[in-house]
Amino acid sequence: VTVPPHIPEDKIRADLLSIYGIEIGGGLGPLQGQVWRIGLMGYASNPTNVLFCLGALEEALARQNAQITKGVAVSAALKALA
Known about the structure:
Layout: H1 9-20, E1 25-26, E2 36-37, H2 47-63, H3 72-81
C-alpha cells in the first residue's frame, strides 16, 4: 500500500499497533517510508479481519489529516466480498 504524501508512515504503524493491535510492516530498502506491507494470510485472511484492518487504517489516516474519503475502502471490500 502506497503511503499518502506528507503522512508520517511510522506514526500510522504505531497507531495501528497501539490502538487496534494491528501490526503492519514498513517498506524496506529503497521503499522505506513509501509503502506499507500488510499481510493477511491463512486464518487471518477472513472477511472480518480484512474489514477491521481497512477500517483501522482509514481511521489512523484520518487522524493524521490524510486526504481520504472515509468508508471507501471498507465499502469496496464489502462489494468485493459479496
